[in-house]
Amino acid sequence: MTCHWLAPDLTMSAPDYRALLSAALSFKRRYPLHTEGALRDRTIYFLFYNASLRTRSSFQTGLARLGGNAIVLDPHAGIYTPALPDAEIPYTTERVADVARVLSSYGDAIAIRMYGAPAGWVYGAAHRHLEAFAEWSQVPVINMECDRFHPCQALADVMTLREQLGGLTGRKLCISWAYSGSWHKPVAVPQSLLLAAVKTGMDVTLAYPPPFALDSHVMAAAAQFAGQTGARIRVTHDLRDGVTGAHAVYAKSWCSLNHLPQHSGEAVDEAGMHAVFERHRDWCVDADIMRLAAPNAGYLHCLPVDRGQEVSDDVVESPASWVFRQAENRLHAQNAVMAHLLNPGSLT
Ligand code: CP
């Protein structure tokens, strides 16, 4: 059976996830001298429905250094846009079932980023698009961020936390919503991180204004994993309370699920979304907020960051900022994921 990488934060057991984390850290230590050729002559197709700097560059660079070939396909230009049956346009789109079978007859994996506008902003629609690819693909499908999960980011995040904090059991992570002048960031990053963090035994405080609650199914799954690992999950609607005593503060913006459409063809409630964002402009992590955290606590963000809105410049540029180590770890996390999926022996 083909092993896909769609929502590993949700589907992998906690021990398996921790084993992958250890393998990824080990793969990083051996990179690049002792990992060259790990994916020699393997080809992966990359489909980006949304913009990307880190994901695109790190996957392409990593695969090249492991000896493989990256072929980037733009779903909106140069190929027929892969579409599900209810969104087909003659000679403009091509059914996902057909694209998946064709690409998997040529190469070794298909990696996809899709969230937001390309899926009509209906929560879960982008994830279903990836699932449709996986249903028809004979080779692994890798989630490079959908509307529910960003597993490559989460693996890089917990790698960074492990490197900075050492053992993670019982360490306190605050995942906080933050204000941005754009409402377009999906909930994928906090949801994947919450699941990954509790699997490593971290105590997580989620801080957000009430309109920014995460998916209740993800919250329930996180609670279940926490029950297995002994991790604790706490929710607060007060940024200062959330940050107080934290060993790591991960503050970023995400959209309100309550203001997204329920069905295809419906519009985002942009006025309502804008209003709940503007009511919480003070949710910005600055040096005063960081002083509430534990001594030597770090600040994390997946990037791109909206400086002066999500976080102040001085925090991003301070020694407490771990954001560029996180970005670097995207390369190493994804190298390990590609090796794990295409050539499992190379991870041991
Ligand atoms: N963090 C992240 O996924 O960055 P990009 O959007 O640049 O890929």
TrEMBL record:
Top-level taxonomy: Bacteria, Pseudomonadati, Pseudomonadota, Betaproteobacteria, Burkholderiales
GO MF annotation terms: amino acid binding; ornithine carbamoyltransferase activity
Ranges where the Aspartate/ornithine carbamoyltransferase carbamoyl-P binding domain occurs: 12-163
Family: Belongs to the aspartate/ornithine carbamoyltransferase superfamily.
Pfam families to which the protein is assigned, alphabetical: OTCace (PF00185), OTCace_N (PF02729)
Residues in Aspartate/ornithine carbamoyltransferase Asp/Orn-binding domain copies: 189-340
Keyword terms of this UniProt record: Transferase
PANTHER family: ORNITHINE CARBAMOYLTRANSFERASE, MITOCHONDRIAL, ORNITHINE TRANSCARBAMYLASE, MITOCHONDRIAL
Record EC number: 2.1.3.3
Class in the EC hierarchy, top level: transferase
Designated name of the protein: Ornithine carbamoyltransferase
Any GO BP: citrulline biosynthetic process
Protein source organism: Pandoraea aquatica
Function: Reversibly catalyzes the transfer of the carbamoyl group from carbamoyl phosphate (CP) to the N(epsilon) atom of ornithine (ORN) to produce L-citrulline.
